[in-house]
Every structure is written in C-alpha cells, then in structure tokens.
Amino acid sequence: DVKVTQSSRYLVKRTGEKVFLECVQDMDHENMFWYRQDPGLGLRLIYFSYDVKMKEKGDIPEGYSVSREKKERFSLILESASTNQTSMYLCASSLRLAGTGLVFASYEQYFGPGTRLTVT
Amino acid sequence: AQKVTQAQTEISVVEKEDVTLDCVYETRDTTYYLFWYKQPPSGELVFLIRRNSFDEQNEISGRYSWNFQKSTSSFNFTITASQVVDSAVYFCALRTLDTGRRALTFGSGTRLQVQP
User: Fold this and answer.
1) Is B95 exposed, middle or buried (0-12, 13-18, 19+ CB in 10 A)?
2) Which of A34, A1, A109 has the alpha carbon at shortest distance from B47?
3) Residue A77 class from Cβ within 10 Å (0-12 exposed, 13-18 middle, 19+ buried)?
C-alpha cells in the first residue's frame, strides 16, 4: 500500500511565524505535490516537485516555498505565516515513468491525511 | 486552460436512495484523464476511478457507476442504494498532457450526506 504521511494533523501558529509542513512517501514516487483545500474552492496546487531538488510553481505559490532534498520527503514552508493561509494542506505523490505523455498522465495521485493549519 | 465544475455543492439523501454526482470539464486537449476521489470525514482523499479520453465505456464497480460522455464533457458518478458510509466529499479531477501542468485540476467538490 502506498503511504503518504504528513507531520501534523493540526497546527496552530501565530502571524509572522515560519511554518514547516513535512510530507513523506514510502513508494519511491518521483512526483510530489502540495495542495491547499478551502471550502467552495476545491484543491488548488501550490507547488510540485518531479525530482530531488526540482520544483515548479503551481496555481497559488505566493507566500510559500518548498524543499525537496530527498526523494521521499517534500516540505512546504510558510516564510511568514498570515491569517489568509489558514487552510487544510494536502500532500500527494505519484509515479512518473519515462515514456509517452499518455502514460505519464495516467497515474493517480495518492494523498496524505492533511494538515489543518490555523494562523492566529 | 482547463476547468472542472461540480455544480452541486451539497446533496442530502436517505439511505438506500440512488444519487448522481455531476462533473463537467473543459479542456482543449484531445487526450486526457478524468478521476474521482472520495474524502471521508477523516480527511484523506481516496482514489476511486480513472478514465482516459479514448474510452467512453461506462464502468460499474459494485454500487458505484460512472457515465463518461465526451459529447457533453461530463463524467458523472452514481451511487446505487446509498449507505451512511458513503457520506463524504467527492471530487472530480482532470489531468491533460499539457506538460506545464503535471498536477490534477480539481472541481470544488460535492458534499454527500446520507441519512439513516
């Protein structure tokens, strides 16, 4: 079974604090993703990584950064937390195989349990 | 650009009723994949099904069935004889071959409440 774990289920931080959210997967997946989930907006992509030290911005990267020093671990960093970053954060991973784009596109993403972050 | 629309924000049914969750997508790509995920109260998204744009056959898995119609850009999900354990938020998602977009595009989700 694919296992994606996130360091905390619930987190409360103060405005201006630096926040680290950690995600670890145990299936040797190349791709890892960070989403945030807000009511009525679904899941929105913040950043993703397709290899160690490689990252690309998603739809809403402002106010966030990421780090991928090891294949199994993908960290989301809030440099200076703000109240509008209160949200549910979901990490996901998926396979990336060499080959056609069709193969690449087909692989489903496996999600962690989420971290509910509250910034006060 | 791509978009997924789940117009139903919340649906409430009584146990044993059938319920259909709607999903409409937009993409210019001719090759793409569609997904459904379930998010129970525990929070973790669970993969339910994947469908590629070349296969319009409907699929049935137990009480779950999916109706994919390219002509209307829809990928609807039906639960037959619903149960309380089906209560969750359900997300439809799209993945195209646009290499600048390696992640999924999600709809806003439909919250299903099944009352006993």
Assistant:
1) buried
2) A109
3) middle
| Cβ neighbours of B30 in A, within 8 Å | none
Q: Do B31 and A101 touch (CB under 8 A)?
A: yes
Q: What is the largest CA-CA distance in chain A?
A: 46
Task: Please tell me if residue B103 touches chain A, with a CB cutoff of 8 Å.
Answer: yes
Give the B window 4-33 contacts with A, CB below 8 Å.
Answer: 4, 6, 9, 31-33
Partnered with residue A44 across adjacent β-strands are A36
Pairing of strands A42-51, B59-61: unpaired
* pLDDT tens string B75-102: 999 999 999 999 999 999 998 876 556 6
Residue A39 tokens, joined: 């009511």
- Supply B81's token pair: 């004889």
Cβ atoms of B69 and B56 within 8 Å: the answer is yes
**Closest by alpha carbon to B112, among B27, B33, B25, B48?**
B48
Any idea how long chain B is?
Answer: 116
A66-111 pLDDT tens trace: 999 999 999 999 999 999 999 999 999 988 755 555 545 557 889 9
